[in-house]
């Protein structure tokens, strides 16, 4: 039986997996290693113009007057435009979804008209022959402002004394309450109740390639080609089409190399929409590359939550109930088209997620503020939910005097309990918390480092061990966005074409931002068709070429795009065998494909090279039966539908040493055990985890967008916003449990966000474990030296 | 962001440089590792940049009788690799690796760093700790200024319009001298939250005020700590209050005190 | 007013002459004028390291050096050092260990890494981490990069 016939996760398929499960390097890394990638800013077109934006210096202010005359006189300036000018070419949008009941947001324009609602919002655009010249002109724009009361603090926003948008009666964008019932009773009956309020700083993605777009309008065709650093080309095609009034098929979005995205590049940005509109208006190509300072002020921010959580348990350590109250501030607009209600919604869905308690109550308030907008960034809501769950779990374990690993073992949902519906309503197909916990403790030699910890404490060295179990949303079904009315595809497609030389071209709607999606698609396609890896060429990121699909977000690329490639590969293989059977004049069931060759299934005898088959099918079809047409291009699609999400699970551990004199935290080691289903490429999966863990460590120790009480971003540059650098990062040990999803043939779940989801909680628990003998505890991320010193009572 | 437009000149003699610098809107460009970022962020808009890196004789490290004379254009990387600095100015040798990162140390100069007078930088504190002497020239004259008198305030020095810092003289360390350089940074190569350049009884804190803060402490650690508490009032930064920085300064003081590092 | 100056320099072994605005930094010059787009501008304030280049044999931040300052200099970029095969061992190690994801930091990272390899004798893992600590990578978490450099260092005779 050939490899194409069975699900890859079916019993006995190990030998038939081909490249699946192998750590092969990804081919596209080669061009990037030689500096021969193509990012948007590497492109030049004839008559290319550059746009820059005049941005509000105020958090909230009315635009009384805009004066462009001096700027317009500057040589090399092509035009200067207000919000009204741009609005003639681009309609406004509203970031709401029907399934987030009651969510509201005002219309948002590409360039603000009348009023700026955060420091950094664009209020005018300058187009010039060079970026430098456009910036020169910016300095000549005069704006008269009338400052309006600004709402900066989210608790002030919730209190609603000042209302940001006059059309609303409060500052609440979205509110959700969830209650299984019986929560008060559970707390009343509990032996132990613990409570804590956790604060999570605002961060941002800091993709090394800044947001970039080159829009090229062809007036003769009324068509638009957009070279865009984006995760979702088809979504952007739809949006450009609808907001600029260009037929969908006349809009082509091309995402070549993308220099990091992490969720930052899956949203609609006003300045990017304005760039496209200006290309239409000026009938020439226009490029916008955010500079680093603009990136900090305008790339979506994320997190900024204040969450109070309570946990009830018995003396014996059985968790009975969770009670959550989460507040998050999202800036003045809900971001289009995904909305800014999703992160808070995820916190409600996921809090307490690994555990088997049955009572759960949650309250969420998502409020507007006059700061930059927040939206979905890597691990959306998970770092919050995991940290507050695992933080309160550790506190409960400490209160009853139980080892935190033992406490988790007692409460994690049993591995044989699936399918399982969690009290928040989310459904788990199959998870492996206990297997993961056991593997983690073994890998990290938990008992031994606990003993070391005790020994070192006697010498005044404070080490801490922190655990964080987690669940993670991956492979989202249309229930995530589509049901709410968003034109965001939950399905993806793959086209495979056998070339005359026996090579296979793969075109997939999932995009590549460095995760290695093109690499794993090559592995899947080669395995499914029966060719060697170097025969595969993968193309992604072009709406003019690939099938329609969602792109890359929510840890969906491998699980959804990969399945489409697998299905398409199997179909192509069947078609190839059909042609081979005509050429060889044998029954196709007796044939198989192995190493680029059609072979006899029984004897493995080589029958026909694929290049020979290609030659016949394309150039000598006259030799084939009259009623037979060779089909060497096939397309297949895939949508996960049985579950809202294909949940994964995992557990992380952090070992830290706290310098109690300085408050500095040294990260000694980090472990991550993850169950992401079928592992297609262990090396790439581990690298996703490691990169994710380090982003999570950034949240725990370093990253926070600091605002003044007036709403000025105080650290919007690379020197002051601290991202993790190599010197402080630990080595990260990864291990896997493989529980394939049975929803797909491939069995892969997502892994892109797991590291980021779990690391902050693990590091927080490690710090608090280190501080425990000193009766100190920290709950506000990031854990700066000052916050730790304060907790220790040293300052 | 792109820098605003400016003119550029690279004189090959001091006399020519002084003529160019007579323009009040001219700025001297040495390694450019602080000036160019400020230009790129349009925080500074000089009419003319006078690139002084072509001036002869300013990039030498000379060991004289009792001082080491370091030309203003000597880069951090040269200092880092110099056996003379290691031998004769060990405090500076300890400080150099803390200056940013290799690629920046290859361009940035000691003169540029001192003339910028960033109170969070390493060299100003070392210069004060070592009682270094700054050699300053203008078109007609040369004068010598002690480090303590050179630093006047936040990014403010004794340099007058039309003057250039030419060299710095550090005393050659004696065998019995003790030198310790310590700083606390959250990430390797960042500007320090607080730092300490210690030379014998001279304790100079960086990141602790508008200029290097000098304390003279002898023998008694407890008294020194009290003196620090009373005399140090560091400005808060984005992540640290004044109280935190004062506490951390005390930690560094104690650590330096207990470090048995000597100059040899 | 735009002030422009004539410069002549050697880029990847080839002499080039251009007239450049004084305000243009070296990375923009390489990217815009010479169309050597392998060097990336990630912050333009000298922090991220994506623009790391080699000038007269020493690594520099390309955004913190003006093109006019490079007059008479020898400049090496990722393109030239790839073609000369000088970086081949590092590139192979990075490739095999997937020590890059989006690739935007990679040219700068490779130049910083090669600098360490040329100048240091068997650096420790900590020294490797410190040497590349001025080069920001958001994707990898650095471990694979450190592993790759360590591998090349250990393979060095």
Question: What keywords describe this structure?
Answer:
heterotrimer; A: 795 residues; alpha+beta; Aldehyde Oxidoreductase, domain 4; Aldehyde Oxidoreductase, domain 3; 3 domains; 7-stranded mixed β-sheet; 5-stranded mixed β-sheet; 20 helices; 28 strands; 28% helix; globular; C: 157 residues; Ubiquitin-like (UB roll); DNA polymerase, domain 1; elongated
Overall description:
The complex is a heterotrimer of chains A (795), B (264) and C (157). With 795 residues, chain A is an alpha+beta fold. Chain A has three domains: 29-37 and 491-638, Aldehyde Oxidoreductase, domain 4 (2-Layer Sandwich), CATH 3.30.365.10; 40-148 and 210-258 and 264-298, Aldehyde Oxidoreductase, domain 3 (Alpha-Beta Complex), CATH 3.90.1170.50; 301-478 and 642-791, Aldehyde Oxidoreductase, domain 4. Chain A contains 20 helices and 28 strands. In chain A, the strands form seven sheets. In chain A, strands 3-5-1-12-9-10-11 form a seven-stranded mixed beta sheet, with helices on both faces. Chain A starts with 28 loop residues before the first helix and ends with a helix. The model of chain A has no long low-confidence stretch (mean pLDDT 97). Chain B has helices spanning 14-21, 35-40, 76-81, 83-88, 90-95, 102-105, 110-116, 122-129, 147-150, 221-231, 242-258; strands at residues 7-9, 26-29, 48-51, 61-63, 67-71, 133-137, 142-146, 151-153, 156-157, 164-171, 179-184, 194-199, 202-206, 213-216. Chain B contains eleven helices and 14 strands. Chain B has three domains: 7-51, Uridine Diphospho-n-acetylenolpyruvylglucosamine Reductase, domain 2 (2-Layer Sandwich), CATH 3.30.43.10; 61-171, Uridine Diphospho-n-acetylenolpyruvylglucosamine Reductase, domain 3; 179-257, CO dehydrogenase flavoprotein, C-terminal domain (Enolase-like, domain 1), CATH 3.30.390.50. Chain C is an alpha+beta fold and 157 residues long. Chain C folds into two domains: 4-81, Beta-grasp domain (Ubiquitin-like (UB roll)); 86-155, [2Fe-2S]-binding domain (DNA polymerase, domain 1, Orthogonal Bundle). Chain C has helices at 26-33, 78-83, 88-97, 106-119, 125-131, 143-155; strands at 4-11, 14-21, 52-55, 58-61, 74-76. In chain C, a hairpin with a 2-residue loop joins β3 (52-55) and β4 (58-61). In chain C, 65% of the residues are buried. The interface between A and B is medium-sized, with 30 and 24 residues.
